[in-house]
Input
Amino acid sequence: MSFHERRYSSWLLGREESLTRRRDNAGRLLIALGVMVAVAEALFPWERATPDIPPLAHIGAAALMLPVLYFMLQADYRAKLQGFTRAMDDLGWRLAFLDPLLETEQAALLEQYHGAMLKPTQRWLDTTLHASQPRSLNAQVQRYFRAMPSPVHEADRMGWLSIFHPKTALSWLVVIALCWMLTPYLGIRIGSSVGLTLLPYLLVLFLAGGHLNSRFAYELALYNWLRLG
Output
C-alpha cells in the first residue's frame, strides 16, 4: 500500500466519518442518561426519604455533578488519546500494523528488526492456525487494538471480558456497592434516612464512557497516523 493510498483511501475517510458519528451518538446518549439521573435526583420526594437534608441540597448536588462528570470524561478521552498517540510513535508498533501489507523486501527488513526468532515463529503459528489469510484493514485495526502495549489501557482493550480484569472489576464492584448503599428506600439507613442520593448512578455512566473513550481515542490516533504518515 503506497503512502498516497494510506493517506487518502476511501476506507480511511469512511472510518473517520463512522468514528465521528459513533462518538457523537455515544456522547449524546451519555449526556441524556446523565440528565435523566439529575432530573430524577431533583424530582425525587426527598422530604420523605431524607428528611434531614433539604431538597435544594439534592438539586444543587445534581447541578454540580453533571458538569464534573462531563469534564472528567473529556479529560479521560484526552489522556487516552495522548497515550495511544505516544504508543504509535514507536517504529516497532508502526511496522507491526503494516506487516501484512509489506512487500517481500520490506518483510525481510522487518524480520531483521524483530530478531531472527520472533517473526519466523509467528509466521509458523499463523500457518499452523490458518491465520495467515489476507486481512482486511478493518480486521487489522481490530487486531492492532488488542496487540497494543499492555500499559495502554489494557483493561479496556479486553472488551466485555474486561470485567475480569482486577482494576475494572474492582471499579465496578465499588460503584455497584455505592449505588445499592445510597439508593433511597433500598440502601443503608443513615440517621433518619434510608439511602441518600441517586448520583452514584452517574459513576456507572462514567465507567461506561471511559470504556468507550479507549476505543474512540485509539481509532482517532490510528487514523491520524494513517492519514499523516
Notes: Residues 3-228 form one domain.
